[in-house]
């Protein structure tokens, strides 16, 4: 897997995948589709739109261009391939 500067390699309108932790149950994580959009608070910056919320797109967020790449990262990090959808 290649790591990119998200502000340089992604464009508004793209669909990407992220590993999202449930904020109420920290031991639950799953792969979610997210849209890359312009940040409404800082239009020159990009953001992820996920669950009706804008998240600033920073290098702290692991973004995957394909679902398969996200699944591999999930398996590497959490072990196994049993994904919760």
Automatic annotation (TrEMBL):
Keywords: Lyase
Domain of life where this protein originates: Bacteria
GO molecular function terms noted in the UniProt entry: lyase activity
Family matches, as Pfam families: SplA
Protein name as annotated: Transcriptional regulator of the spore photoproduct lyase operon
